[in-house]
């Protein structure tokens, strides 16, 4: 009796979809999709009556990725980029092959959020690990740009209060020195 009601409901849903679209091919597409679902040929389809052991195994795999993501977030500075990429790609494969229910998707999304936060943390660490420029090289290049007479006048202060800044072409100095800096040039560089 219950299966007959369910079949009637499914048939009415199919007919209502066909009526809305007005296309006879839609009914064939719906039947083909249902056949593929029943045969297990489609990936990423919600399966409410999935085997419990299969569901447990899928959730165990996804929780493993979630735990590794949590560990990686705690030790973001020690995690290599290759390891991080491998874990994210593995989670993507697990999503495609294991997620078939909302509970699986919840675990997967938590793991993905943790990997996202780990990536953000690694990006912030990367930004602070790189120095903007090498100060010794900057000073050396700056001395090369300055005219020898200016360097001599700065070294031997003649007491007239001039610092030599009027004779320095700051635009030329900036143009020549910027290739040695890793920072974005700004208007108030010097």
List keywords for this structure.
190 residues; mainly alpha; 3 domains; 8 helices; 69% helix; Nse4/EID; DNA damage
Walk me through the structure.
- Helix 6 crosses helix 8.
- The chain contains eight helices and no strands.
- It is mostly helical and 190 residues long.
- The protein starts with a helix and ends in a 13-residue tail after the last helix.
- The longest helix is centred in the middle third of the chain and has 28 residues.
- Helices cover 69% and strands 0% of the residues.
Globally, the shape reads elongated
Task: Report the mean per-residue pLDDT as an integer.
Answer: 72
Q: Write down the Rg.
A: 33 Å
Kindly, what is the distance between the CA atoms of the first and last residues, rounded to a whole number of angstroms? 85 Å
Structural class: mainly alpha
Largest sheet: none
Number of domains: 3
Number of strand elements: 0
Percent range for helical residues?
Answer: 55-70%
- SSE order, as H and E? HHHHHHHH
What is the strand and helix layout of this fold?
Layout lengths: L1 H20 L2 H16 L12 H23 L6 H18 L3 H28 L5 H11 L2 H8 L14 H8 L13
Task: Provide a concise account of the structure shown.
By secondary structure, the protein is mainly α. 69% of the residues lie in helices and 0% in strands. The longest helix has 28 residues, at 102-129.
């Amino acid at each position: 009796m219950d299966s007959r009601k369910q079949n009637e409901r499914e048939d009415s849903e199919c007919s209502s979809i066909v009526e809305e679209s007005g296309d006879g091919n839609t009914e064939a597409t719906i039947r083909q999709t249902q056949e593929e679902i029943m045969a297990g040929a489609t990936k990423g389809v919600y399966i409410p009556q999935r085997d419990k052991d299969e569901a447990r195994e899928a959730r165990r795999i996804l929780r493993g990725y979630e735990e590794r993501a949590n560990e990686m977030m705690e030790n973001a500075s020690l995690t290599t980029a290759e390891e991080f990429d491998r874990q994210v790609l593995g989670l993507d494969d697990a999503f495609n092959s294991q997620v078939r229910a909302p509970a699986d998707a919840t675990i997967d999304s938590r793991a993905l959020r943790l990997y996202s936060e780990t990536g953000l943390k690694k990006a912030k660490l990367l930004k602070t690990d790189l120095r903007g420029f090498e100060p010794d090289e900057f000073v050396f290049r700056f001395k090369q740009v300055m005219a020898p007479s200016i360097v001599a006048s700065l070294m031997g202060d003649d007491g007239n209060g001039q610092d030599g800044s009027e004779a320095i072409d700051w635009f030329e100095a900036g143009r020549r020195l910027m290739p040695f800096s890793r920072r974005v040039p700004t208007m108030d560089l010097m």
